[in-house]
Structure formats: C-alpha cells, structure tokens
Amino acid sequence: MPRLIVIFLSVVFCCSTAFADNYWLDRLDATIHERYQVQKQKERKLSVLLKTVNALNEGRAKLHITDSLYKEYVTFRYDSAMAWVEREKNLAERLGDDYYRQLAIIHQAYLCALGGYYAEGEHNLQMLDTVKLNHQLRYEYHVARFWLYMFCDQYSSNKSLKPAYRQKMKESLMAALNLADKQSPEYLYLEGQMYAIVREDQKTAFRVRSNLIRRLPVRSKLYASTAYDLAWYYKSQANKEKYVEWCCRAAISDMLTPLKENLAIQDLAMYVFEKGDNIDRATRYIYVAMEDAQFFGARLRILEIAHKFPTILSAYTEKIQGQKSRISFGLVLLALLSVIVLLSLIFIKKQNNLLSLNKLRLERMNNKLERTNGQLQESNEKLEDTNRKREGLAQLYIDLCAKYIDKLKKYQTLVKRKIKTNQSQDLLTMITSSRISEEDVATFIHRFDRAFLDLYPSFITEFNGLLLPSAQISVSLPHELTPELRIYALMRLGVKGNQEIADLLFLSLQTIYNYRSMMKGRAIHKETFEEDVRKLCTVIK
To answer: pTM higher than 0.85 for the full model?
Structure first.
C-alpha cells in the first residue's frame, strides 16, 4: 500500500507540473497574439512625442523631450535610439548644456555596449571626467560602465581579458549602488546584482529580487529583467516548473512593455525544443525572437539568435518530412486496397460463371465497384496533385529560410573579419545600408504567384465574384497576381496582420492599409468582404 501511494503521488506531481508549464506557456501564446496591438500603441505614443519635439524651439524643453525619445527607443529600435541620442548631444552642445551633453555621451556608451561595439563604448566613457560629474551623472556613468563590462565578460572570446572585465564590472556596480536612491526600485535591482555577482550569495540575491518584483508594474523593463533573473535562479535549483513560470512572466512583460531587446523567449524556445513535446511551439518562439531582434536592429542579438535558429528549424523540417512519410504510407495502403478490390472483382466474375441465376445482379455489382475504383483512382490523383502544389509553397518557404540562414552565416563571417581588422565603422555602415535586392524580391514574388495559383487556380475568378461589376481585376500574365490580389492571397493562406503581410511582400505598412481600404470600398458586401475572401477556393481543384 505505501508503494502504491508513492506511485500515485509521483503521477499527480508530474501531471501538476505539466499543467503548470502549459498554463504559463498558453498565457505567453495569448500575449504573442496581442503583441502587434501593443506595438501599435507604442508607435502612437512615439508619434505624439515626435510631433511635440518638432513643434518646440531649441531650448531645454526640447532637450528633455529628445532625451525622452531616446529612453522610449532604447529597448524598441536600436538605430532610432542611436539617432536621437546623437541629436541630444548636438543640441546640448549648441545650447552649451553640459548636463545633457554628458548624459548623451553616457547613453551612447551604453548603446555601443548593447550593440556589441565595446571599444567604442569604452572610448565614450573615457571622454568623461568623473570628478566633474554631478551625483546623477556619476550614477548614470557607473550603470552604463557596469553593463559595458557585463557584456564584455559574457560575449568576449578572449578569455584572458575576462578577469579584468569582471573586476571593472564589480567596481562600477558597487559605485552605482552607493550613488542610487535607497528608496528607489533601481537600488533594489542593483543590490540584487551585487549579492549575485560581487558576493556570490544567490539566496540573498533571490530574496532581494523577490521583494523588488512585488513593487514593480508588469509593463516595465525592470520587471522583465528581474523576472528573468528569478527564472535563472530557479533553473540553478533545478526547479523547472518555476523556471518556466518566471521565464514566461519575463517574456510576457517584454511583449506588453514592449521590449524588442529580449532574452526570455529565446530561452523558452530552447527549453520547449529540448523537452521535445511541442516542436511547433519552439519554432514559433524562435521566430518571434528573430522577428523582434530584426525589428530592434542590434547585430549582437541577431547573431545570438542565428546560432539557435538552425537547430530548431532542422527539427521542424524533420517533423514535416515525417508527416510526408505518413502520407506516403497512407497512399500505399490505398493502393493495396485497390488491389484487394480488383481481386474481389475477379472472384465475383468467376462466381458469375458458376451462378448463372445471379449473373445480372453480379454484373450490376461489378459495374458499381468499377465506378468506385475509378473514383478512388481519381481521388488519389487529385490528392497527389494537391500535395505537389502544397509542397511547392512549402519549398518556397524552406528556400527563403535557407537563403536567409546562408546570409546570416555570411554576415557572421564578415562581422568577424571586420572586427579583427578594426573596421567597425565600415561594418556599421554596411549593416545599416543593407537591403534585400530587387532581384530577390522579384524572384520571390514570381515564385509565390505561380505556387499560389497552382494551388488555387480559380482564386482570381472567385475573388472578382466578390467585387462590383465595374471593379473587376484583370491580370496581364496568366501566372501573375496584382499587388492587391497578392495581399488577399496571403490572407487566404491565413496571414492576417498588416505588418506581417507588409514584411512578406516587401511593401510599406501604409501601402497595405491603402490597398485593403480601397478593395473593401469596391466589394459587393463590404462588411463581410475579408471574411468572404478567406472562404474562397474551399475545394482545391
């Protein structure tokens, strides 16, 4: 009996752990669906600030708003943050405002560290005379210096320099802690870092961080960072349930704030992948991480994710191949059934020769079975054709992924060469100016059109059936879609978000809005037009 109780409790514990994991992962999935709406809210806030700063004359008020724009962009868009901090510095120099000039230099140092430009970040900090800095600027200086040497310690390939980096990191951490407002959440955050890094007392660091996170709003960078630190503590204690919960909390906070410079969802992607029970979820998480990293624009994060991306993508591809194998097995079974039916027909014919009285009935049955066999063969042919067409779309997707993976590898090689030759500025210029070629865009669009029309040959005709007679769309070439048809082709495939459509078709977000608005105005039933589009070609010919 005691043994049975132990077994029962073990089963209950495993089930409860799995339930807890799925609860937080499901919450994260729901937040992922909302992230574009949150991003739009962030962009509306930025739009207001931009209008405000453009309306102001040069003065301290404009400096203040310019600094606010840097703070809004620093975790949202790397290039924009760098541009606004440069404006802040130039404006401060014109106004003779030393406070904002020095603050801008500190911000530039932090951005350089965030982007992986450690030498430039160190150079910026060395430009400042810490003795002449006021209390607040000295605090900002040491916080930026702490993060600079933290990144150097984490990402530098030169192991001999790591002890020096770590010592400088500890020095700046202690200096920032001494300068911080002891009543502020920032003080508790730095205190947690001090216990974890300087004193290596992880339990005390955990208690400090647990106290801190109760004081923080979920929509804040400090909450996301603290939640991520708590997740890593639970991971060190082998508490997988709490690790997943706090990683999810950190990732949810990243998306609700929103913070495009994130780490938690990358860790979750690898956790789900290594767990091996939901490769689709792992693939979705790593794509979200890659999308955010590309949106943010810092090369360090893109390269970091690029190392994880192929592993998960390879597993996802293997899953697709497994599904194809099962389909092939099904077709073999259908073929065997066809053979069995044929043998049955032969047997029936032989029985017809022996049973003359049932000849007519058996002949009718034979004819019926032959028709059924013909219909089955026709269905097999349609299924094979449909699979071929769908594989064309899948191949287009895989080719595109492979192409970008190859580009990422080439960029990695180029980055290493440029860094080794101290050509960082050339590298920055090249990365900033890089764009997908028009030839690549045209090739992708052409292949997409052919693959889609192969799969849905009646799409254009059915689409025109939703439009007013005077608003019919005609195409110049038989295997080519117009831009508006291409937008609604993606919607037919299940792509709903304007930003996602814009990215796939290499168009601006405003262009997508314009096309959708124009086509809705030309529809017979405007209220249900886009829903009607998703129902087109429900039977693949």
So the answer is: no
